[in-house]
Amino acid sequence: MKVSFYGTRGSCPSPGKDTLKYGGNTACTLIEANNGKKLILDAGTGIRRLGDELVKQQEDIYLLVTHNHFDHIQGFPFFKPAFQAQRNIYIYPAITQPNEPKAIVEQMHGSYSPIASTMLQANIQFQFPDWQLQPIIINGFSVSRQPINHPNGGMAYLISCDNKTVAYVTDNELNFPNPVVTISQWISIVSDVDLLIHDGQYVASDMPLKFGWGHSLISESLDLAVQAKVKNLAIYSHDPERTDDELDQLQAEINNMNQNVNAFLSMEGQVVQL
Ligand SMILES: [Zn+2]
């Protein structure tokens, strides 16, 4: 299994000279099985460049969406395969409050977008499998999901293939007020996964202002990874204000903690082979 990061920034794209190393595009991650089958997680601005690659191929596209905040759907109107007439795109929406499963195309509406969703030529099909029957099989991957602790809700996904498991848990506040999923439940859910991709947008100095905004401290994500005995932790959803130098400093602090987990701040363009 191979995991490629096309966007690891949270909340808002942050291009510029201070974010060249970790990247400025928002959430998009590609999972590839050894047989080449693919699953896309989220359609933040990072999906635009992934689309430039996929547009040259014929395969059906499978996209799992965690929630509808702009940083997770904003790239879809710029995803070239959506404009290909022969293309099948299967979208698995999250449950949100309010529940708006087609928001990813409905954002292309009225004065919000010069291109209406009716101009997308691909065969776009929203999928609503019975998630009670977890795991379900999507393009050869075994997939289950869990609600996240985030304003308006959303979903985390656990994806298995090739005897490896990735947990994609972004925009999740581990110490959320009135959590939907407690920390001890998270420890059980992501226990022993090969790669945990977890939100780590904040540091201690961001609190208490951002308490309840739906993101975790890097240290909280690290604690979860250690307690759940995951093999690798990719910290995800970096704060748009955080510069490369600051992220490098935070990575150095993680390295000095000498934890029993390979923990790293995920980087746009990075590929992890499991
Ligand atoms: Zn969000």
How is the topology of this model organized?
Layout: E1 2-7, E2 28-32, E3 38-41, H1 47-54, E4 61-64, H2 70-73, E5 88-92, H3 103-106, E6 123-126, E7 136-138, E8 141-147, E9 155-161, E10 164-169, H4 183-189, E11 195-199, H5 218-227, E12 232-236, H6 244-257, E13 262-265, E14 271-273
Parallel strand pairs: 3-4, 4-5, 5-6, 10-11, 11-12, 12-13
Antiparallel strand pairs: 1-2, 1-14, 2-3, 7-8, 8-9, 9-10
This protein binds zinc ion.
Written account of the structure:
The chain is α/β, with parallel strands linked by helices and 274 residues long. The chain has one domain (2-273): Metallo-beta-lactamase, Chain A, CATH 3.60.15.10. It contains six helices and 14 strands. The strands form two sheets. Strands 6-5-4-3-2-1-14 form a seven-stranded mixed β-sheet. The protein has a seven-stranded mixed β-sheet with strand order 7-8-9-10-11-12-13. The chain is globular, with a radius of gyration of 18 Å. The chain starts with a strand and ends with a strand. The model has no long low-confidence stretch (mean pLDDT 97).
Q: What structural keywords apply?
A:
single chain, 274 residues, alpha/beta, Metallo-beta-lactamase, Chain A, 7-stranded mixed β-sheet, 6 helices, 17% helix, 25% strand, globular, binds zinc ion
